[in-house]
Amino acid sequence: MIAALNDLGVPCADKAPSASVFELTPAARTKVAADVTKLLAKAPEWKKTALDRVIAQLKKPYEPPNKRS
């Protein structure tokens, strides 16, 4: 649901329900990155840059939002 709201743009993103932020285990991050990599092959060109960013983020160690600069 949140992904769909994000695709609609900023005016709709603020309508998304608040969600808890939690850390995925390293194994879960690796699995999700692999799954997104599989999606990348079938994704339209305009979406590939965003998926590349997701994959890169998942390959980094988790950093809580309050520690990001």
Per-chain topology:
Layout: H1 2-8, H2 10-13, H3 26-42, H4 45-59
Task: Describe the 3D structure.
- The chain is mainly alpha-helical and 69 residues long.
- Helices cover 62% and strands 0% of the residues.
- It has 4 helices and no strands.
- The protein has helices at 2-8, 10-13, 26-42, 45-59.
- Helix 3 (26-42) runs antiparallel to helix 4 (45-59).
- The two termini are 27 Å apart.
- The mean pLDDT is 75.
Beta-strand level of the residues, as a percent range? Answer: under 5%
Order of helices and strands: HHHH
Q: Measure the end-to-end span.
A: 27 Å
Structural class of the helices, strands and pairings? mainly alpha
Global mean pLDDT: 75
Number of E strands: 0
Radius of gyration: 14 Å
In helices, the fraction of residues equals 55-70%
- Biggest sheet layout: none
Uncertain runs are: none
The count of helical stretches stands at 4
Shape: globular
Short description:
By secondary structure, the protein is mainly α.
